[in-house]
Amino acid sequence: MSGDVLINGVPSEGTIPVTDSSVVRGDGCFEVMKVYGGRAFGLEEHLDRLRRSANALGIELPKRDDVREWVVATAAKNDGGLVRVMVTRGSSVPGVDDPSNVIVLGHPGPVIAPSTRLYPLEAPWHAGGVDWDLAGAKTLSYAPNLAASRRASEEGFDDALLISTEGVILEGPTFSVAWVVAGVVETPSLDLGILDSITRGVVLEEAERMGLEVVEGSWRLERPAQASEVMAMSTVREIQVVSAIGERSFEAGLVTSKLADAFRAIVT
């Protein structure tokens, strides 16, 4: 992996101390950027969110210019792939004084299917709108989300749709969702504690630019059941058709197609 990994700006084989908090506690934050034409899309927005996550965790980051330089260098060698930035707290073992690390990793992205089928799943670990110290932070601790994805697979679906303990739609384990009802684009609002997705933000801006009404709010599963089309949005997926939520099926729709084309035009 030499040449694709930088740790604190230094080329590395990708090794960190086993006493690091990211290994022992899953304590840290991260960002993932997709590379188009050798450039990381939404770099400044991702760096902004990384800073917010690190601040929420109380981890001091290096200078922004340094992190940007490391991402730019890694993206240039990983066209069409992903650049992952991971920030650790350093040692969490008493008596060991390892510093925090900023790991910049370039790697290929997964193959994304044209559509996905989602299994609604209650997410008791999700704050669901209750304000707390790490609300909206993109932390390394993704074990509950990944467990949800595995559970969805066991149930015969492609991924999960997370629902609050009060029955409110939140997001996917690694993506945002939106749907179209009577020509209006609806999506769960950020005050539910969901991730402030960079892709979601771009898509909603493009929808408004097209003259579509966009409403952010709080809905139960009954609402997307009334939709003509549903979409998943993320750095890796871009804009993906959701063909089913539970037993309710959806067709690929014109709004999703137009938004996907607009997003592709932006990134290319």
Order of helices and strands: EEHEEHHEEEHEEEHEEEEH
Query: Could you say what the CATH architecture of the largest domain is?
Result: Alpha-Beta Barrel
Low-confidence stretches: none
Number of alpha- plus pi-helical segments: 6
Into which percent range does the helicity of residues fall? 25-40%
**Radius of gyration, taken over Cα atoms and rounded to an integer in Å:** 19 Å
Describe the model.
With about 270 residues, this protein is α+β, with helices and mostly antiparallel strands. It has 2 domains: about 5-105, D-amino Acid Aminotransferase, Chain A, domain 1 (2-Layer Sandwich); about 115-265, D-amino Acid Aminotransferase, Chain A, domain 2 (Alpha-Beta Barrel). Helix content is about 25%, strand content about 25%. It has 6 helices and 14 strands. It has helices at about 20-25, 45-55, 65-75, 145-155, 200-210, 255-265, and strands spanning about 5, 10, 30-35, 40, 80-90, 100-105, 115-120, 160-165, 175-180, 185-190, 215, 230-235, 240-245, 250. The strands form 2 sheets. Strands 7, 8, 9, 10, 11, 12, 13 and 14 form an 8-stranded mixed β-sheet that branches. The protein has a 6-stranded antiparallel β-sheet with strand order 2-1-6-5-3-4. Helix 5 packs across helix 6 (about 255-265). The longest helix has 15 residues, at about 45-55. The two termini are about 30 Å apart. The model has no long low-confidence stretch (mean pLDDT about 95).
